[in-house]
Amino acid sequence: MLALAELHNKIKEAFEVFDHESNNTVDVREIRTIIRSLGCCPSEGELHDLLRFVEELEPTGYIRYEKFLPVMTKVLLERRYRPIPEDVLLRAFEVLDSAKRGFLTKEELIKHMTEEGDPFSQE
Questions:
Q1: How far apart are CA 47 and CA 43, in angstroms?
Q2: 21-36 CB burial, b ≥16 within 10 A, e <16
Q3: Do 73 and 91 sit in the same domain of this protein?
Q4: C-alpha distances in angstroms, 47 versus 42, 61, 90?
Q5: Is the pTM of this model over 0.85?
Q6: Would residue 107 count as lying in a domain?
Q7: Does the structure show a pLDDT above 70 at 15?
Q8: Predicted confidence (pLDDT) per residue in 56-84, tens digit
Q9: CA dihedral (102, 33, 50, 47) positive or negative
């Protein structure tokens, strides 16, 4: 029971950082940052699925803490969206670093991140 209370406290603290009006709501655009600050790394698709559960029936652009807490508690208890282990990331980097230089140029990184896998936007 204590662990659950500590988990709720952790979620509340992360949420409050972005609750600028102190009204138990945050801008929906901040949810990704809150989730990542709690140690989760969902893909864009997974993030959209999460938002379906926490947004109001009529989206307002804001997420209420009362709806976010149970969803995020379940995510954390189930240990979903865990970051990729360091050794897996290193192997992936080595694949991208075909010249074996130990680094990627800015242009190479942009190309890989915007054209492959779950692509990011230019921003």
A1: 6
A2: eeebbbebebbbebbe
A3: no
A4: 6, 15, 25
A5: no
A6: yes
A7: yes
A8: 878 889 999 999 999 999 999 999 998 88
A9: negative
Q: Is the distance from CB of 23 to CB of 47 less than 8 angstroms?
A: no
How far is the C-alpha of 68 from the C-alpha of 8, rounded, in Å?
A: 11
The answer to whether residues 38 and 10 touch, using CB atoms and an 8 Å cutoff, is: yes
Indicate the number of domains in the chain. 2
Domain that residue 62 falls in: 2-77
Mean residue pLDDT of the chain comes to 90
Alpha carbon distance 10, 88 (integer Å): 28
Whole-number pLDDT of residue 1 = 63
Cβ-based neighbour number of residue 59 at 10 Å: 10
Asked if residue 68 and residue 11 are part of one domain, the reply reads yes
Q: What would the two tokens of residue 69 be? A: 């807490």
Q: Does 40 have pLDDT greater than 80?
A: yes
Residue 27 CB contacts under 8 Å (≥ 6 apart), including other chains: 18, 61, 62, 63
d(CA 29, CA 101) in angstroms, rounded, equals 37
Q: How many CB atoms lie within 10 A of CB 42?
A: 17
Sign of CA dihedral 74, 76, 82, 85: negative
